[in-house]
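for the writeup, i need someone to sanity check this before i put it in the appendix. the sequnce is what the collaborator sent (i think, or maybe the updated version? ugh). structure was predicted straight from it, no edits. if anything looks off just tell me and ill rerun, i have time this weekend
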Amino acid sequence: MNNSQTSKKMNHSVSEFLLFKLAWSDLKHEWILTLCIISAITSVLTPLLLLFGLKHGIIAWGRDYLIQDPGYREIRPLTSKNFNNQWFEQIEQRQDVDFVIPMTRQISAMVKATIKGKDKTARLSIVPTDNADPLLIDNKTKIPLINECVLSKLAADDLNASPGDIMIARVSRYENHQIKYDKMTLNVSGILPLRASGLKSMYVRLPILNYVEKYKDGLAVPEMGWEGSLPKAYAQYNGLVIILYDKLSPVESLELCINTGFTQIKELDNRLFFERTGYHINQNMLSYLLFTEKKPVSDQHIMTIRQKLVNKKPLLIPWIKPAKAFVVNSKGEDIHSFMLYGVPMNKDLIQRMGAKGLPFWETKDHNIMQIILSSDICKNENKTKIRFPGLNKQLVFPVSISNERIQTGNSAFIPIKLAGILNLNHYRHIEYQPPQFVLSRKGYAGFRMYAKTIYDVSTIRHYFESENIPIHHELRAIKKVLDLDKGLSIIFVLLASISLTGTFASLSSNLYASVQRKKREISVLRLIGLSGKKLFRFPIYQAMIIGFFCVSLSLLLFQIFSLFINDWFRPYLSKILDFPINPGINYCKMPFEHYLFIIISVILISCLSALISSLRVIHFEVADALRDE
């Protein structure tokens, strides 16, 4: 039984091979007609392949060029607002944001520039940039270093600048009824094409823009050698301790909370006083805590209270909420923690209020960078560094350790003025610049932002609308680009459908005509033993052979013409398209998997086009075909 099945399979294979060979011999016999069919179909397939090659080459590149153009992905605020560092950190975490960088006030971002050795001068706006800036990266421009700049095309033309030139930028400010100038020198590292920006701009690292803004605000910029004032940090208090011999009346207490900056007053017993200040006072004295819940108060508010209580001769001590601080080692690691209290340095004031548990300050000068620690912290040391948390978690500064020590506990005392300055760190960014604390930037007036893709612009727009921040975006232009992309895709599908339909019709009609013409010969084959089912595959085999030769010849012609387009026609096509195309870009190309798809598709269409002819073969009447007319 097995041998019989094997024999049938072998006979079937032999007959199929003979049928295929017969189909090939028939095409070879009518080689002129076969060549005409192949030529006709090839003339349809080759332009279609070239069209798809252009689609995957220059047209696909041009579409992506438009879709990924940074100009379409840019987001800009329309109003100035304070954007702090926390806001920028949150934005950077968004998956739909590709790049964001702070911007200063526009009026503070203007300089006059000239190229060393040249006479031309231009007024330029400063634009901050950093690593991963898509505007520079997508335009094949190097990201500048801290001492470099990138010029826009219009700025470079006005200055007659080239990469490698030295640019001198003059920064001005109005001071003491006159205009003062300083300058900085930057190397021109690159020039952006006109596509990137239509403004006269210079792109620099963010610190350069910060320096210019500080200078225009009248502040000193030591990094650039520019003179000016320093924004010294000032003390801010959470409240005021009032120490009296006489009790305040309800009316007097109420008056202290009206138009003084303070909102609440509370009488303190000995326990509460110790919890708030860290020390005790004379039990015969009365104490009150005048405080505010939200905004801190300054020395001016304390002066207002002093004037209201001038007849009672009060002892007024600014109050700071006890805060946790840390002693750090030379590596910046926390080694001790303690609760920090602000106390007065005035020895006379301490004696008048009969303070207990509060050591006197040894120094008679006004150095506030001192601390009184417990006896078990920093033994045998006279200096250390303290880290104080707040908005700036890295506020680390040196202090002198007093010889006076607290016996036990985790408390530490510092001068009330130093405590007030440290308290400011909860509301403003401050930093220590020896020998003093100075204010650092609150935030930025604006930003430069780019969405990850043009499809993310809409979601970012919704976010800013929910935050009530008006922005400028390119959604209308984006819609035009997407519509163009859809239109091109529809055109390609339409052309491909028409071409393939023409191929199908041409091959079907030729095969049908061939079958009709060979009606007698096919009938003879049926008489000598070939069944209708086998002869059904005769036109299909011929269609497969013709399809294979057509697609092979079309692919060969595609390769020849694509080489011609990519190499010989490149300079002419660049001028026609006016695109800044990279040398490595091919105008006409096709992925390898598409070659396989095209071969299989053409052969499959060829087989389908032979079905009408195959059905006709089955319905031939042998007697009619052999009858002599």
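The longest strand covers residues 178-191. The two ends are 49 Å apart (CA to CA).
thx in advance!!
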